[in-house]
Structures are given as structure tokens and as C-alpha cells.
Amino acid sequence: MAKYVLKRILLLIPVLLGVLIVVFTITYLTPGDPVVTILGTGYTPEKYVAKAAELGLDKSYLEQLWNYIWHIFTRLDFGKSYITNVPVATELATRVVVTAKIAIITIIIDVLVGVPCGIIASTKQYSAWDYGFTSFALLSSAIPSFVIAPVFQVIFCVKLRWFPLAGLAGVSSYVLPIAVNALGGIALITRMTRSSMLETIRQDYIRTAKAKGMGRREVVRKHALKNALIPVITVTGSSFALMMGGALVVEMIFTIPGLGTYLYNGITNRDYPIINGSVILAATIVCIMSIVVDITYTVVDPRLKTQFVSKKSGNRRKKLAQAGDGHV
Amino acid sequence: MVMFNTKKRRRKMEMAGVQFTKSNSRFGDIAARMLRNKLGMVGLIIIVVLLILVIFAPLFTKYPYFEQSFPDRFLYPNAEHILGTDNFGRDLWSRMLYGGRISLLVSLVALVMSNVVGIIIGAVSGYFGGAVDEIINRILDILMSIPSMLMAIAVAAALGAGPVKTSIAIAVTGMPYGARLVRSSVLALKGNEFIEAARATGSSNLRIIFKHVLPNTLAPIIVNATLNIGSNIMAISGLSFVGLGVQPPTPEWGSILSAGREFIRDFPPIVIFPALFIGLTIFAINILGDALRDALDPRLKD
Amino acid sequence: MSLLEIKNLTVEYVLRKSVVHAVNNISLNVDAGKTLGLVGETGAGKTTTALSIMGLLPHPPAKVQSGEILFEGQDLLKMKEHDLENIRGNKISMIFQDPMTALNPVLTVGEQIAETFHLHGNYSRAEAEKESLKMLEMVGIRPERSTEYPHQFSGGMKQRVVIAMALACKPQLLIADEPTTALDVTIQAQVLELMNDLKVTFNTAMLLITHDLGIVAETCDDVAIIYAGQLVEYGSIEQIFDNPLHPYTIGLFGSIPSLDEDVERLKPIPGLMPDPANLPVGCKFCTRCSRAVKQCEEAEPEYLEVEPGHFVRCNRIGGTDNG
Fold it and tell me: Is B81 inside any structural domain?
């Protein structure tokens, strides 16, 4: 097991390297000259050359890429903001805590609300509960967070004055951002739990359990749930990824000093080190989350767990993963 | 070309008495199941109505979407302006319909681009396997580990704003998912005997991919594409919202919403209507996509 | 009084466009300690009959239209769900057709067997576990494997686990729904033998559902032949095997290869079973029957007792034309 975790962490390196290259290349190809951005108008050619040299922008693409990667891997140095001249890494470190705090609470709420809703909807299929939860899930997955957030602001901050409109001050200021963030995830997890439960309930082993004389509730609790929740783990992981993207909008609307607002500042100012750094950090978090998801899988699903004991684990797992691709 | 040949051969065989009842009845089954799904039909009707309104926007609007009228600012819905007017006195109904053109068109263009590229990459990767597959797969891994919204933002930031650039940004983001989907369906199909048979009779790889493999992976591709339209609309609006998508004065639902946000407290319609259009469209597409999936999934038969 | 008496059971599947008549007016008896074979083709209504005894019919679409299922004199169909739960797995248990899917993949086999003990009777966790080890041993699986998961077992071994689960509470009635169909031939024999032994040990009555007359010959005391949801012939094993009367039963015997006789060809029954949503008016078998006459198409044959305990549903039997 430890070996597997280690292997996954090692495999993370090439992926992150790839992410670095992709992100760096995208911004490298962007038209516009960062030096001009920094110096503004009215600079002398000497100044220009000096600034370009200072930033390493006079070097070739490969050299710049190499430096970028080298600095990140050796010194966790993501460069400095063009505008404020503050090291990106410093900003990222403080801001990621804010974003992560919101993200983790959101995920917990997603699961705590979404899974029970899905279970109720599936065990009482075609009931009012089912229709209620299903349509709630459909609706909230159709409404983007940048629509919900302002509406919530108007209702809860302006009209009802329950929560502060923006900024981070005390617990109450976390409520709305988390609520807006959680809606999409709850919808996703509710839908997934419901369909997964409905599929599981039709399995033969559920009939076997009933044939043993087990009551309906117990069958659901002891036999259906564990099987049905396996695919839900995947969705939880992907809703986390979704949230890292969504954080941008939500943080921006509620002016929360997290990764999202930082990235937004980077975009509006064409401050590429900020864009690169934020995107890379978000991707890293998503990758780590996917490892966590995979490890959770092996804990929950004995079919995977026993494969680690057997010798050809790698191959078989890979096959299983490939076969599962289509359903994710 | 390939399609044409197949059709011709099919007609010949049909004349010779060979019937394709199986595929015909399957299509019939799917259509019947689709029609039975009431929610899916609601989705379809909403989409058709929206499409008609948006395509024939000039027929349904009284005012040009760009016409400003200072005295008519911030009008609530009335007989003259059925959805009211915005902060420049522009007719919101016109802006919604014309904005929908951009939203839907960009979404569709992005969809076509991402799917064409995704299908080719996925089919090649799944069909040839081995090193090709390994390399493509690793690249897809990398692209997919960047959250799609952020990927779209990075690409859009690089390309700049505008409808075409926005659709490219969204296409780049969506491509890996389509490729993965096709790849796994191709992998699942590859072991089937009819593929072996085609190879045994000396069909070329290209021919096998286009004639035997891809047609059989159509169902998941169609479902995925349908649901993609919705997520694309959301992505476009999101990009416009952060200022990277379609720029004002070009109307687009996301940018209208974004521009109206500062007036939300005093004049909610300016935000509510674009939100409603975005939400309704995505909702309709989602339920249509779900219905399509149920209709195409033989496991759920009956 | 028999242990299990099914009286005039009719089960329908009500679908959107049609009504499938899965079981039509079936009556069966199973005596304590005896084995009844229920023989028929796929789709004849065998499993539906079994599930209606267990009260596990998928509802909707299945619906019991009429009839009684008396177990120890009590009508299972009228019983409350809670009381049924006390009977299921305890007094009546069932072995399913496909052992590959019958076990829960995320629970160990030990847990799954122990569960039955836990549900019926006052066993502590440790006791239930101990009992489950005993059961495993009884079905020929090393007790130390109880902590393994179903995917670590072969098909035959899984079926042994299922049997262990079914027999855990020493039920009075065991319903075995094609218990060996999904298994290899060599494993089939082992599993059958095991079931027979345990049946004798626990004095369990059995309703054996199968399409294999060979298995019936080895295990059953009585035989019921079911066709398109109706019983066409019913009698003791001697009556059915020595003196099969219904053309369908005769056809079934004609379509098994025999080692004793030197036959040129097997005689399969031509055609297919009628669509259960659209059954013929007269004899359900008339479309495939070599001896069918006009009367067979028009009127449904009566279910007659031709000799004590031997029932046949055929127009051509019992009258003058009897050969």
C-alpha cells in the first residue's frame, strides 16, 4: 500500500512537469510584451533592455522554460509579480490557505448533504422526495455560480442583512461563499448517488440479501450503500476540481483574498507569473486530490485492495482503470 | 466518401432483399424511448423554441440590440419592452436574443472543434495502442489535471477576447474529455470479432476506424456532445464574466450579466434575465442529454 | 397438509404496452423433506413462481393476480412484510442461478454467511461468526477463507457459499433456482451432490427449478412440467419418467442425448415458446405440437388427473385417442 502511494506520488512529477510546460508555453505564446506592461509608456531603450535582462526575457524559449522549471523545483520560486514585484510564491502560500479552507468545508458539506439526498431519492424512487431532490439537482447544476452569487448577495446581504456583503471577517462571511460553492457539488453528488444506488439496488446480491430475510432499510445500509458509494468518490474528486475553477468567480464576487482573486488580478493586469503560478498550484491540488480519491478507492473496494497483494497488481489495476474510463 | 459508399452498398443490398431491420428498429426504439421521456421532451421543446427565437431574432424584436435611449433607461418589463431595458436604455429582449446567437454559436463552434480533434486523437490512441496510446494518454492526463475553467482562462488570456478566440479556448479545454471517451469506447470495441474480421479481410486501418469503430462509438459521443453544449455555454458566460470572453458591446449572456452586476441592487432585471436565459438553456440541454443517454443505453431498456 | 401448497397462482407483469402472463393458475405441493422438480424452458415462469414464494417479485411490474401460497398453512401472499422477513432465510431460503453476481463484492463471505445467523436467532457476533465457519466447512470450503471476498473464489466455490448461506438456518424449504446452470459440468455434479447430502442431513424440502431432466432424475421425488406459465404435466418421478403423457414432456425426453439407446438424431421440439404477452387461446403448446388438432387451437385443454397423482393438460389424453 505504501508502495502504491509512493508510486502515485512519483508519477505526479511528470504530470506536473507537463502542466508547467503547458501553462508556461501558453503564456509565452501570448502576444504582448511584459516589459512594456511593467515599464508602461515612456521608457528608454536602455531601460527596456535592462528590464528584459533582469526578468530573463531576453533568453530563448527553452532557456526561459528551463529557468522557470528549475526555480520552481529547487526554490519553489514562481517569479515575481510584474506589477507589485512581490514574489508569487509568497502570495500563493497565504492565499491558498483561504481557498483551501473554503474548498474543504465545501466538499464536506457536499458529501454530507448530497449523499443522503441521493439515497432518499433512490430508495423512494418516483416519490415527491425523489422529484424534489432530482429537480433541485438539475436546476442547481444549470445555474452558474456567478448567477447564484449575486442573487444570494441581494437576498441575504442587502435585503435580509444576515451576512456581510464581501470580504473575510469572521465566520459569517464564509457562509455565503461556501453555500454558493456547495450548490453545484451537492447537485452532482446527489445525482450520482441516486443513479448509482438505483443501479446497485437492481443487483443480484441485493436480492440475495433480501432472500436472507433482511429488512429493506438494512439491505440499503449494509449491502447497497458501500457498493453504491464507490462511484460517488470519483465524483467527489471531480467536484473538487470543479470548485478550484469555480473559486475564481466566487472569490471575485465576494472579494475573498484567495487564489481566485489573485488569479483574477493576474488576468486583468496581464500579470503572467501570477496566472502561471495560480493555475499550476490549482492543478497540483487537483492532482493530489485525485491520488487521495484513488487511495480511498482501494480502501473501500476490496477488489482493488487484494490486487495490491497479488504480484501483477500494476497491470491489472491499469486495465481496470482503463475499463472504468468511460464511466467517469 | 466512405459514407456515400456505405449508403450505396446498403441500398443495393436492400434491393437484393437484405433487410437492415435491426438497425432500423434500433433507431425506432431509441426515438420511441426518447419520446416517452417527458422531461427530455420538455428539454427538447425549450431548446427548439430558443433556437427559433435566436436564429430568427430580427422577426421577434422591435428594437436593434445596440440602440441606446437615455430616457428609457432602467425600464421594468412593459408592453413596449417586454423584458425592460438596461442601463443604456437598450431593449433587454433584443439583447437576450442577439446575445443568445453569440452564446449558442460560440458554444457550437467550440463543440465541433473539440469533438473533431478529440475523436481523431481518441480513436488513434485507442485503436493503435502501444507507445502512441501511452504518449497521447500522458498528454491528456496533463491537460485534464488543469481544472477546465482555469485552462480556459489561461488559453483565453493568451488568445485575447472575441468570439472565435473564446471558442478556441473552450475547445482546447474540452478536447481531452472527448478524446478519453472515444478512446475508452474504441478500446472496448477493439476486441470485438467484427473488427478482427475486418482486419482479416485486409481493410486498412483508416477504413476500419472510420467504418467500423467510430460508428459504433457514436452513442456516447452524441450524449457527451449534447451535455457539452451546456457546459460550453456556462464556460463562455464564465469567461465573459471575468472579462476574457466576448467583450461588450457585443451582446452575450455572460457579458450582459457581468455588465449588469453593478446595478443588481437597484434594478434586478438586468441580471435576472440573462441568468434566466443561461440557466434555462443549460437546464434544457442537461435534461435532453440525460434523456438521450437513457434512450441510448440498452441496459435501461424497459 | 403439505409444507408448501401453491393454489391457483397467477402472476402478471404489467408493462406499459402489454401484460405478460408469466404464471397462469399454477398449483403445486411440496411435502416436508421431499423434492419437487419444476421443469421448463427459459421464460416458462419458473423463476417467477420461485420469487413469488419468497415474496421477492419486482413490484412493479410484477403483480400476483390471484391464488394462495400456503406455507405451513399460512398464506405468504397475505403476510405482512415483517413476518415474511422472519420466514425468508430462516424457514424458506433460496439459491439463485448465478453465483457470480449473487454475492456482495464488498463484504467477506464470512460476513455474508454470519449475517443470516444474526438475522434469525439470538446469536452474538462471535457466535454467528463461529457458526458461519462451521457452515463453510460443511460446504467444503476451508474456514480460514471466510475473511476473503467473493472475487477471490471460483464460480463453484461461490455457489457453495450461496448454499451455505441458504442452509445456515436449516430451512424447512429450500428453493433452488437452476443452482448449477452457470457452473462447469464437473462442478455441477459436485454442487448437486452437496445439495443432496445437506438436504438429507437437515431434512429440508426442496423446490428444484431446472431445465435439465438429468438433474431431476437424480434428485427429485415429484416433477412438475411448466410450459408458458402453465403446468402441463405433474406427477411422481416414476410417473413422469416411465409414462410421460404430454407431448411437451415427451418432446423434452426426445431432446436429451441418451447413452443407453442408439438414436440416429435427437428430436428437438420445433419452434419457440409463444410470446407470454400474447398467448394462444387454446392449448399453449399447440403451435409446436406434432399431435395438435383443430380442437387444440380452439379450446384450452383441461387439467386432468389421469392416474392417482398424475395430472396432464392435453386434449389428446384421456379420451379415445391415447397413443
Answer: no
Chain B residue closest to A156 (CA)?
Answer: B265
Question: Reading across the β-sheet that carries C205-210, which strands appear in turn?
Answer: C92-95, C173-177, C205-210, C35-39, C222-227, C230-236, C310-313, C303-307
Measured between CB atoms, which of A205, A210, A213 is closest to C87? A213
Alpha helix (H) ranges present in chain C?
46-54, 81-87, 99-102, 109-119, 125-138, 155-167, 185-202, 213-219, 237-242, 247-254, 294-298
The yes-or-no verdict on residue A112 having pLDDT over 90 is: yes
CA dihedral C39, C43, C48, C49 (to 10 degrees): -20
How does pLDDT run across C227-265, given as a tens digit for each residue? 888 888 999 999 888 888 888 888 888 777 666 666 666
Is the CB of A154 less than 8 angstroms away from the CB of B264?
yes
Residues 6+ apart with CB under 8 A from B275: A143, A147, A151, B257
The mean pLDDT value of chain C amounts to 84
Residue with cell 431432446: C255
* Residue count of chain C: 323
Which of B145, B241, B271 faces A249 most closely, judged by CB atoms? Answer: B241
Residue A192 has pLDDT above 90, yes or no: no
CATH, residue B46: 1.10.3720.10
What CATH code would you report for A90-311? 1.10.3720.10
Residue B36 lies in a domain: yes
Q: Find out whether C7 and C70 touch, Cβ atoms under 8 Å.
A: yes
Cβ–Cβ < 8 Å for C291, C247 = yes
* A150 to B271: CB separation less than 8 angstroms, yes or no: yes
Q: Using alpha carbons only, what angle is made at residue B41 by residues B301 and B302, rounded to the nearest 5 degrees?
A: 10
Q: What is the phi/psi pair of residue C226, to 5°?
A: -115, 135
Please identify which residue in the block is written with the cell numbers 441510448. Answer: B296
What pLDDT does C261 receive?
65
Nearest by Cα to B155 from B236, B231, B229: B236
Q: Which residues contact B302 (CB under 8 A, 6 or more apart)?
A: C15
> B155-200 pLDDT, tens per residue?
888 887 788 888 999 998 889 988 988 888 888 777 777 777 887 8
Phi, psi dihedrals of residue A101, rounded to the nearest 5°: -60, -50
Domain count, chain B: 1
Distance, in angstroms, between C69 CA and closest chain A CA?
17
Task: Test A212 with C82 for CB contact under 8 angstroms.
Answer: no
Backbone torsions φ then ψ of C66, nearest 5 degrees: -160, 170
- Is residue B6, in this structure, part of any structural domain at all? no
Which pLDDT score, from 0 to 100, does residue B298 have? 53
3-state secondary structure of C282: coil
C-beta separation of B7 from B15 below 8 A: no
Query: Mapping DSSP to helix (H, G, I), strand (E, B) and coil, where does residue A288 land?
Result: helix
pTM beyond 0.90: no
CB within 8 Å: A267 and B183: no
Residues comprising chain B, all counted: 302
> C323 pLDDT exceeds 50?
no
- Digit-coded pLDDT (tens) for C119-138: 887 788 888 888 889 888 88
